[in-house]
Amino acid sequence: MKRKILSIIAISALFNLHLYAQKENSDAHLFGHVVCEKCKEHLSFATITIQGTTIGTSTDETGHYQLINLTPGTYQVRATFVGHKPMTQEVTLRPGETIELNFNLERDALGIEEVVITGNRNETNRKEASVIVNTISSRMFRSAQAVTLGEGLNFSPGLRLENNCQNCGFSQVRMNGMEGPYAQVLINSRPIFSGLAGVYGLELIPSNMIERVEVIRGGGSALYGSNAIAGTINLILKDPVNNSYEVGFTGGMIGAGTGRPEDRAGDYTLQLNTSLVSSDSRTGMALYGFYRDRDPYDANGDEFSEISRLQNNTIGTRLFHRFSNRSKLAADFFNIREERRGGDRFAYPLHETNIAEAVTHNITTGAITFDQFFRSMDKLSLYMSGQRINRDSYYGALQSFRDYGTTRDFTTPWEYSTMFSWEGLSLPWEWRKTVRV
Asked: Which residues are within 8 A (CB) of 51 and not within 5 positions of it... i.e. 6 or more apart?
């Protein structure tokens, strides 16, 4: 089996290099703009994709886009923007020819025209999905000022994030009333988020690295594994689509207007995002960073915290390179370091307190994906990833030395999947393996 997979990769690579050599000087260019049909305003950062290929870009701040040196042929070009219905147009590209292709998008108040992946493990129009998929967009995270994944999940029907421990700050998401361990958390549709990471993981992941969140409730989501009894939460990470940067700072005060002034606690976050894409849209890189500092909060003055202290530092990147119009190699990496502590006597070591619950996380995640389209409906996808978690903890009282602990976890799922069709008949085949150490 491994030899067959390696042979397929080698043949695909040679095929792609041949296509890449042919395509370099095609001088077939595509440009245009994306406009809201009702308000007649240009839409900044709308997504432009060529269906059946891995080629895509986004409009700039003025609502215009360009794709250069494309392979000649007839394509279906699709424009999408949050809150608007997608639009697809056909275009025929010839060598040495530049074509203008404009889009007028209609508003979509219900969001039923969105494309989702979680429904059946392939990109599907939301209204055609076999199950109900609720989506939380990056715009919703910004509107609600949700700085972490957990804070944004409350805006999806049937989900509730609850705090189950005032000292350690342990939180879990309830789907249809069921506890957190019955929900499967995916990253880019892959089950690399282990049960250990899920204990505090919903508050560890910053929102600025998420493009959208797809949620399925109910037993039908068991397609993704035995943990998905209550449902599935799928995180789609941001892709670099243009040259841009973004810096955001958020500050808040817990307990303002109530209690004693000295008991108020500050909560400050800093978010950094940047993306760089080559002029021919073949190579791109996205970088993101996140920092959070929250003070402990004592609501009733008993010297024990009701909200734990935490510090979070996250840095990550996403890289891609297109060998041809129909192939793409992508890599993801991010590292999360967080310290949280609750209890009393925060100026003292953990074993010198009356009670303390503290955890320190170091989570490193990496993934690499290779996608190859052979025809509009034929796709080969190879994927491999890994996540390592180092957790140091202390759960003790009355100045105990015995309550220090450490946990190590390593998860490596990898997949080989294909989707072929013959005269409208889909013939999917998939093989999956997950190893936890």
From this structure: 75, 76, 77, 78, 88, 376
